[in-house]
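Hi W.,

Here's what went into the run:
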Amino acid sequence: MSSEPLLSRAFADDRLELAAAGSWTAVHANELEALVDGIARDAARSRSAAIDMRRVHEFDTFGAWLLERLVRESKALGQDMQIVGLPARFQGLLDEVHRTGGEGPPPPAAPNPLLRALEALGRGVAETGRELVPFINMLGALCIALIRVIVHPRAFRLTSAVHHVDRVGWQAVPIILLITFLIGCIIAQQGFFHFRKFGADVYVVDMVGILVLRELGVLIVAIMVAGRSGSSYTAELGSMKMREEIDALRTMGFDPVEVLVLPRVVALVIALPLLTFLGSMAALYGGGLVAWLYGGMSPEIFIDRLKEAISVTHFRVGMIKAPFMALVIGIIACSEGFRVLGSAESLGVQTTTSVVKSIFLVIVLDGVFAIFFASIDM
Amino acid sequence: MVIRVRDLVVGFGDHIVLDHLSVDVRRGEILGFVGGSGGGKSVLLRTIIGLLPKRHGSIEVLGTNMDRASDEERRAIERRWGILFQQGALFSSLTALQNVQFPMREYLKLSERLLKEVAIAKLRMVGLTPNDGDKYPSELSGGMTKRVALARALALDPEIVFLDEPTSGLDPIAAGDFDALIRTLQQTLGLTVFMVTHDLESLQTVCDRIAALADGKVVAAGSLATMLASEHEWVKAYFRGKRASRLASRLAHSD
Ligand SMILES: Nc1ncnc2c1ncn2[C@@H]1O[C@H](COP(=O)(O)OP(=O)(O)OP(=O)(O)O)[C@@H](O)[C@H]1O
Ligand SMILES: [Mg+2]
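Here's what came out:
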């Protein structure tokens, strides 16, 4: 049966006689479309036409639409295509397709590619300017929520905040320790390798101590936290937004910022300094270990040297920065979460944006702090 | 027999949802499946299409035992059924039209023009306009989501369609149209329909047979008259309760 031609034609005088057969179904739709289009092109030569559907034994929407298209196209050529012998059980479907089929509205004309590129560029620039708006919005909303919570301390979601401290703080400890430890090792190794050339071995301790306490400890930890916890905040809030959970909260008279954002940001502000402290210690430990095993500097000497090289100021500089970085990460993560629209794709886009933006801002903030501390001689 | 389920047991943890359930769906019929909320109708549907694991029993679809089917056989069967999920389950990053085209693109080699025309025809069939085709799922109303999901379920002109509460969330007129559409498609395409529904109206007007689920089993199956005559507590409450009495009286008049 599949060997039968789906559509064959014959001319009788100036009348076109078509004979259809076999399966007019989805699987053959491609072949069939080519046949139908070929006929429509030729049909102009004849004045009248008829299609015999008697030997079609399978017929579905695809077949029905192609038949309908054939009829419409021949009609457009001023010809009257008659359908004969369509099995009664297929008539309903043909009627349905006759009613529903069609081109639909024409697609909007594609604009000039150059114009489109220019438009995209312009939009990009304008958007960049507006990128700061959600951040400032969220900062404001957070301040309002904070004031409200200070006035009514019972409104603070303590359980939720503790839960998040556990997630972003406690559970992050092993990975943070591991990474900062390795960073400490690497810095010390590099230091010995290069400083040894001009006999400045002892200064490796100064470098490790100051670099870790002032800059690297807090920066590495903040970047880790932005990637680990910031992204999960964005994804959580984004999927809640997608499923209208945030709207539901709002209609019940809750402020989503107070219920969802404040505990998360507070948790980060608590967790990040603690992680920074642990991370810095791990990095110093790693540095000391390398100094001993690779640099041949005994632990006693390392510690003595460290006491001379660093002061509480260096430690304080690192620790002061931590809560501000936490605030930036938390606000970016939450505001990007609220910007998620309906689709799964936008969830992905905002999560990426959240991580990229918060890492970028963390580094910018670090630079600002460096200038600030330099100008107050810290 | 298009679907043959025997002795099916499905549970989550120690919560047994389906308890030695057996049900048949015959070729070309519309089977209405009723049962209380949380009774396990969606679970049965998801088990038949292979989304949930079963603990015991056998499932045969289109003559193929789904346990013993090779991957290729499974794919061939999957191409021959369409599913309307209770929540729609549209792909959120595709427009309505692209959602309908998605299975067509995957399984058929069609020209862009035909793809577009047929997809628009499907959207119109379920009562949407071509303009709705450009909307994303998050921009559709609840009822429109249902319709797009039906259009997608019908995209490949399947032999079996599983509908999980297709008419909930539609206004009565639209629900009636929906029922009429299912009827037309069933008659013209020889479609077999497995329809979970709470809509007494559709049960009366389109379903050839009804099966009632209670306590994890099919407790009654047959025509509406069989349901009305059933002595099972739940079936009695369902079909002869206040909301159903209007229907019963109407049925009595028509006899
Ligand atoms: N993934 C799952 N994990 C655990 N329990 C589940 C899961 N899916 C369903 N259930 C349980 O199985 C039971 C049957 O659920 P099901 O969704 O089949 O109900 P239903 O008959 O479709 O109800 P409705 O008419 O409200 O849609 C419920 O008690 C539900 O809690
Ligand atoms: Mg359900």
